[in-house]
């Protein structure tokens, strides 16, 4: 296990008590889940849809004044952020399956995103949430592009990884869409000898092209052609809205996973994990940031990434309240709880990217 802090790991008995306390927090929260949560997510969906319609109309009204075009870009970016974060991400975790609403069901929900939702559910819901920050098991740690710990060998290309980081942030939608395809070496690189995919490589490739193709056709062909006299302004507006969404979502996700104090783990560290050990790993492998309720909503409540990793199927609206309880439990058992302001956490992400751009002392001696 590696990280910047040196907190001693609690013994098994302590972790068992720790797990019991966290289980109680989950149980108490789920007992409150009901109509209020259903009303909340439906209201968010209404706001998202009205914002998208308003944004697309405002883009067309750009011929009256550039102000309308700017309003259109911001409204459309806002709608895409809501769709991806507070709606899509949380719905696809099954947080609202209890509603038995076919339109808000985690198994068949499709989002406004280039990534195929089935692919995302496989590598994110199962792989990432099961093997959080286990090097060699969790492909979300660094996305196969960034070196973020000494657990990964340094390569000369890492020297410039801040540029890779910035490019990934701007084109995050494509990175998410391509993530599983890249991990399975579908188009390039040495093929994986084994794969646990429930579909064939051909089906994975076709799903990637099908979803990405539909998404790009909608944003960059259909809507611009539908507003033909305003083809270029609408095209540019859609592109800029996607970039703004990408920058926001990537920043939120990086602040929950790649801050300076986040730990990494080896496969051996996590063999035969108990529930308490699993909870402990989720906390050490995650980080939160603080802010007002609007910030939590726009982040899909991934501002409470610790709580999301602990309780991924609990409706995210409860994470802020749960966070106070989880932090108190961590204090009780002397377990670190990584939180801070949004700006502070983001700066530590950049610091981590820069730090591991260079080889360790041992590696440097051999370069």
From TrEMBL:
Protein name: Acyl-CoA desaturase
Organism: Alkalimarinus alittae
Cited CDD domains: Delta6-FADS-like
Positions of transmembrane segments: 57-79, 220-241
Ranges of residues in domain Fatty acid desaturase: 68-339
Record's keyword terms, sorted: Membrane, Transmembrane, Transmembrane helix
